[in-house]
Amino acid sequence: MARRRIIAGNWKMNKTPAEAVELCNTLKDLVKNDNVDVVYCVPAIDIVPVVEAVKGTNVKVGAENFYIEDKGAFTGEISAPMLKEAGVEYIIIGHSERRDIFGENDILINAKVKKAFASGLKPILCCGESLALRKAGTYKEWIARQIKWDLDGVTADQVKNLVIAYEPIWAIGTGETATSDQAEEVCKMIREIIGQMYDAATADAVRIQYGGSMNAGNAAELLSKDNIDGGLIGGASLKPDFGQIVNA
To answer: Which of 64, 95, 129, 184 is catalytic?
Structure first.
């Protein structure tokens, strides 16, 4: 089965609303590609202006975080219904920065995956290992555990609409990139785990991104691999280079 490629930009905590609109206008003609799903995952304050700025283009809008309750006394948080009404389609869940800096664990991440699906949002579920785990040779067990915890109780039909982003933490924002063979090894393993948890059809349908310092220079080689269906792009998503990745 030919899986549709998905290139998502994770803007992280960058761009004021005015700057966000300016970036959308800069990228508008560079990211045109009807054969690729293009997503901008932007800070909450930028969502409304970005949704407006990309109207009539091929770009979808994603959010970077949300909380599992619809409303209530959760100061500083944002809910799935709020995001949905604002025009958001995708949601990043379990990014290493959320796990490491903000202490999100797999139990919360699992609840977020379920809540996203229940709310009509498409999760981009992140997984990946630290440099210590990579050097210790235990990274496969670590990633397998993340996938199994994070998808506990999630149905096969939901997983078919899931995006999984493999992000080796040692290659995020460091300029280090996993080789295309290292990235393919893990993405293939993730697909095999989905096959074991569900079935071959689900494993074949799930889209798996690589998310560790993919850029205009290495995107084509990474995307040529059988099990890499796209990229979750950090720093390069804030530059015109993002267009080259979309069209790699």
So the answer is: 95
Whole domain around residue 91: which residue ranges? Answer: 5-246
Residue type, 65: N
The stretch 145-167 carries a mean pLDDT of 98
Cβ neighbours of residue 215 closer than 8 Å, sequence gap 6 or more: 177, 233, 235, 236, 241, 245
Q: What pLDDT, in 10s, does the model give residues 23-80?
A: 999 999 999 999 999 999 999 999 999 999 999 999 999 999 999 999 999 999 999 9
CATH of the domain at 57: 3.20.20.70
pLDDT per residue as tens digits for the range 223-237:
999 999 999 999 999
Q: Which of 118, 119, 117 is nearest to 161 (CA)?
A: 117
- 185 in catalytic set: no
Which residue among 97, 129, 167, 184 is the active-site one? 167
Q: What are phi and psi of 238, to 5 degrees?
A: -100, 10
Whether residue 167 lies in the annotated active site: yes
Structure-token pair, residue 1? 């089965």
Q: How many domains does the chain have?
A: 1
